[in-house]
Amino acid sequence: MAITGPSGCGKSTLLLALAGIIRPDQGEIRIAGTNVRTADDDAICVMRRDAMGFVFQLGELIAELTLLENVAIPLELKGVRRHEARRRARSHMKELGIEELGNRFPGEVSGGQSQRAAVARALMNDPVVVLADEPTGALDGDNARRVLDQLLTMTAIRGTSLVMVTHDQNVAVAADRQIHMADGCVRSDGLAAKCL
Ligand SMILES: Nc1ncnc2c1ncn2[C@@H]1O[C@H](COP(=O)(O)OP(=O)(O)OP(=O)(O)O)[C@@H](O)[C@H]1O
Ligand SMILES: [Mg+2]
């Protein structure tokens, strides 16, 4: 699903609400059986840890950890042993072509490489849904296209839903469902013909 709309219309706010980081005053949000508006903080945390992945505009990797350590975090948070978490992190990094960069720190890689690590990390916990807020917004055209293709492919082969804010109309029209927002409201919500 692609979310489009002018700056300030509420796209990022909607993603924060979907993630349970802010609670909506009205309406219902249900993710993997959890009612995000009424669930307690612990349940929301578990839902985020087990059912969600996140990719932001600028990787938001932890600067003090290597790329491999960053990618492995979601599994370590779930209690997977470090050795196993890192083995699986390496496998995701390989899928994205960044397996050589495991020992580098975020400050030592390019923007595109850092976004690839963010994509790898977002999928580590086998989430039900990945929330992405302009995941390629900070990359140049070629790089953006490549990272986006990887994000689309990796979610598609796993059957993971992807909810993505994008300014790129080409990306939006390629989505199965496109939501356009203005002034904090959904103005149009269209399923692509292939979904009907
Ligand atoms: N923490 C906050 N406290 C108060 N108002 C906020 C806060 N965060 C965002 N807003 C306001 O809420 C509105 C929606 O902001 P939001 O960040 O969701 O927009 P956006 O659609 O993501 O814009 P952009 O395309 O520029 O990222 C804006 O008017 C913004 O100023
Ligand atoms: Mg935003």
Automatic annotation (TrEMBL):
The keyword Transport does not apply. Keywords: ATP-binding, Nucleotide-binding. InterPro entries: AAA+_ATPase, ABC_transporter-like_ATP-bd, ABC_transporter-like_CS, ABC_transpr_LolD-like, P-loop_NTPase. Residues 1-196 form the ABC transporter domain. PANTHER family: ABC TRANSPORTER RELATED, IMPORT ATP-BINDING PROTEIN. SUPFAM superfamilies: P-loop containing nucleoside triphosphate hydrolases (SSF52540). This is ATP-binding cassette domain-containing protein. The keyword ATP-binding applies. One of its GO terms (molecular function) is ATP hydrolysis activity. The lineage of its organism: Bacteria, Bacillati, Actinomycetota, Actinomycetes, Kitasatosporales. PROSITE patterns: ABC_TRANSPORTER_1, ABC_TRANSPORTER_2. It comes from Streptomyces tardus. It comes from the Bacteria. One of its GO terms (cellular component) is plasma membrane. Pfam families: ABC_tran.
